[in-house]
Design a protein that fits this description.
- With 695 residues, the chain is mainly α.
- Among the domains are: 34-177, no CATH class; 229-328, no CATH class; 526-641, no CATH class.
- Helices cover 45% and strands 7% of the residues.
- It has 22 helices and 14 strands.
- It has helices at residues 71-83, 95-114, 128-141, 146-161, 198-227, 242-255, 270-277, 281-287, 289-299, 333-353, 357-361, 405-417, 443-464, 483-494, 499-506, 512-519, 526-547, 559-573, 583-593, 613-616, 643-661, 668-688; strands at residues 44-46, 60-62, 304-306, 314-315, 318-319, 325-328, 368-372, 378-387, 397-403, 574-575, 578-579, 597-598, 604-606, 639-640.
- The longest helix is centred in the N-terminal third of the chain and has 30 residues, at 198-227.
- The termini are far apart.
- Mean pLDDT is 79; it is low at 1-7, 229-239, 431-436, 498-504, 508-530, 575-581 and 619-623.
Length: 695
């Protein structure tokens, strides 16, 4: 348990609750005892012992900020919210919400105390005009912060809703009935969290994977070497003397022209030098300091104290770092790299799983479950954890997420960072920190580390002349924070065929409409944005096919129709012999003369609504657009095949053949189905491709 925060006692008149513990009704975190927590008489109430989630920084309530006239009533209110009887019709608020309520009530009490002419000494004297004036104050002070104003008014209403538990002073009327107190604002269900731009997310994800795949072994080796306790090796009387051993070490530095190790403050790291010479620091200081000074004057001091392990990870054919230091500059580099590695793991997990920050922070050792097929190959990865939002249990309920292999690799690295006795994967990744293994960094700290990760990457790119730095957006570094990963993944999932259903399942939403609002697929223009992007991509694909004359060599039942449509589009998209390169002009042409040819991996759909089998499967819910998720390529007459489509089908046949030939043999039913599928594909290709396509 961390050190107890010493708080000054209240100097107000005695109160009958003075000796009561304010957290007496709260479930305390492991390692905390009620007798060490705050009492009513204290001016500072620490809420951290009662935080239900390991990553939450619930902080303190500092009553020294409350004007003296309202001090006791403020204490009575928050004692009631924490430990008092609950009034009829009310529920006890979460501990994490109390600091926000406290902040807003400090604002309100301070405003009351500082009013120049109508200064209120007690809540009983507050009138409706006072509250109307406070609402005008909020509108003037916080004009663009609607939600903050909502919280401010909600905090003031607590003084009325919990009035039965206040003894020293009370608000005698409901603020909600004051004219001008509330404000109306139409709120949609659209998620307004920014998604990470593609130009930022791409290199950010690549560098996170580099940390996990390339840098992690070196960082973990250096960390293990650094954390080993320095012990002097025993030596017998026949061993060399201290002077001989020290001289040998110093001669090695001199011969290699290697500077001596330094502390983070730029002084000689005497402990590291003594460990190399297997002697005590006092022996060097008292008897052989002159030898050390001579060596320092000859080769100088290093940037820090390097770890005596080689860097083996390669990046573009060379080591990703020259050396790894124990200390370098004003920080411990091994510790810094461990934090960067943990941040990289956070990026991969949060981005690819769709977990919230609280869910990522509560992952524990052994949370991964891998399912194998008959041949022993992994085909499904699951992560078990806790979900919090929308659940009745404040301590979370068990939940499972389906993830990809990179997430499980990141979790394996996190398990390697910590010793076996540490259970939480995002506990502090190094010893010597004043937090216990049951605590993890709050969201605010993680946001800071995400931005430091971007800074580290860009510094490395500038140092080694790389061109894959994480770019600025609008000439500023992207302000990355934890909520954006889930929002970004939702946006990508929603753009895929059948993605809305898959997203609703992965994000544990109660309805498809809820996920649509989260992903940005409601009336805000998301659908129009996606359709515009897809249409532009199709237009550019059309022009590339036409320029390479690929539209003349198509196969399949709709090949002639595809060639006619694309030739007509190419004629309209050219102007005086030049191909259209302006995106806006291409979009205008597409809007008027879209050939409705939709490229895919296995088929290119030449969409004709009456013939489309995917449209008929919708049973009256047609949007006059192809449904790639419901495509029946082997039977539909709207199918045409490009060279890439044919190559994709041949790869399917190769996979089927390898699986049929693999050992152990497939179960009979599955084998029959795979052979039937193989025959269907072969018949389809024989009927729709030139002779000799199938080897």
């Amino acid at each position: 348990m961390g050190p107890t925060l010493t708080a000054p006692a209240c100097t107000s008149p005695p109160h009958r609750f003075d000796r009561r513990y304010v957290l007496r009704r709260c479930a305390l975190r492991p390692g905390h005892r009620l007798r060490d927590t705050a009492r009513f008489r204290d001016m500072i109430w620490r809420l951290t012992p009662a935080g239900p989630q390991a990553h939450q920084d619930v902080g303190i309530l500092n009553f020294a900020k409350v004007p003296e006239n309202f001090l006791i009533v403020a204490k009575e209110l928050f004692y009631a919210l924490l430990a008092g009887p609950i009034p009829a019709g009310e529920t006890r608020p979460a501990v994490v919400s109390l600091r926000l309520y406290f902040k807003e009530l400090v604002r309100f009490f301070t405003w009351l105390d500082q009013r120049p002419l109508q200064r209120c000494q007690r809540l009983e004297s507050v009138t409706g005009d006072d509250l109307a004036a406070y609402q005008k104050y909020l509108l003037a002070r916080l004009p663009a912060k609607h939600q903050t104003r909502v919280h401010a008014r909600s905090a003031v209403r607590l003084l009325y809703r919990w009035r039965s538990q206040l003894q020293s002073d009370r608000l005698s009327f409901d603020p909600r009935h004051v004219e001008g107190w509330s404000e109306s604002k139409k709120r949609g269900r659209e998620n307004d969290t920014d998604r990470v731009p593609e130009e930022v997310m791409g290199p950010l994800y690549v560098w996170a994977l580099r940390f996990i795949d390339v840098f992690a072994p070196d960082i973990l080796t250096a960390s293990a070497h650094w954390q080993q306790p320095v012990r002097r090796r025993p030596h017998s009387p026949g061993n060399r003397t201290v002077k001989t051993r020290l001289t040998h070490v110093l001669d090695t530095y001199l011969q290699q022209r290697k500077p001596l190790p330094a502390t983070r403050f730029g002084a000689l790291h005497l402990e590291a030098l003594a460990a190399e010479a297997n002697c005590a620091t006092s022996s060097i200081e008292l008897r052989y300091w002159n030898l050390v000074e001579q060596a320092v004057s000859a080769v100088g001091l290093d940037e820090g104290t390097p770890v005596d392990v080689p860097v083996r990870g390669q990046l573009d054919g060379r080591p990703w770092a020259e050396r790894i230091y124990v200390t370098k500059g004003l920080h411990t580099e091994v510790r810094h790299l461990l934090r960067m590695l943990q941040t990289a793991c956070y990026i991969v997990i949060a981005y690819l799983s769709g977990m919230r920050d609280s869910e990522v922070k509560h992952l524990r050792r052994g949370c991964v479950r891998i399912e194998l097929d008959e041949a022993g190959h992994p085909y499904r990865w699951k992560v078990n954890g806790l979900a919090f939002k929308g659940e009745d249990e404040t301590h979370g309920v068990p939940a499972t997420w389906h993830v990809g292999e990179p997430v499980t690799q990141a979790i394996a690295v996190l398990e390697s960072i910590h010793p076996p006795q540490v259970d939480l994967l995002f506990a502090p990744p190094h010893p010597g920190v004043r937090t216990t293994a049951t605590q993890v960094a709050p969201s605010s700290v993680t946001n800071l580390r995400l931005r430091k990760f971007i800074t580290w990457v860009n510094e490395q790119c500038a140092r080694y002349g790389r061109d894959d730095a994480i770019p600025d957006v609008d000439r500023r570094p992207w302000h990355l924070h934890t909520r954006q990963f889930r929002r970004t993944l939702a946006w990508y999932i929603a753009r895929r065929p059948g993605g809305v259903i898959a997203g609703a399942l992965q994000f544990r939403h109660q309805s498809i409409q809820m996920f649509e609002g989260y992903a940005g697929t409601s009336d805000s223009g998301f659908r129009a944005e996606v359709e515009s992007e897809q249409a532009l991509a199709r237009g550019e694909h059309y022009m590339a096919m036409i320029d390479a004359h690929e539209h003349e060599g198509l196969a399949g039942p709709a090949a002639d129709e595809a060639e006619r449509r694309l030739a007509d589009f190419g004629h309209r998209a050219r102007f005086q012999g030049q191909v259209v390169t302006d995106e806006r002009r291409l979009q205008r042409i597409l809007k008027r003369h879209d050939p409705a040819v939709y490229p895919g991996e296995f088929v290119t759909c030449v969409h004709d609504h009456p013939k489309a089998l995917c449209e008929k499967a919708r049973r009256g819910r047609s949007e006059q657009l192809p449904d790639h998720g419901g495509c029946k390529p082997l039977a539909c007459r709207n199918v045409t095949l490009t060279r890439d489509n044919i190559a994709a089908w041949l790869r399917v046949l190769e996979r089927i053949d390898r699986r049929l030939a693999a050992q152990p043999a497939l179960p009979p039913l599955r084998e029959r189905r795979m052979r039937a599928r193989r025959e269907e594909v072969i018949d389809f290709l024989v009927a729709n491709t030139p002779e000799g396509t199938i080897p």
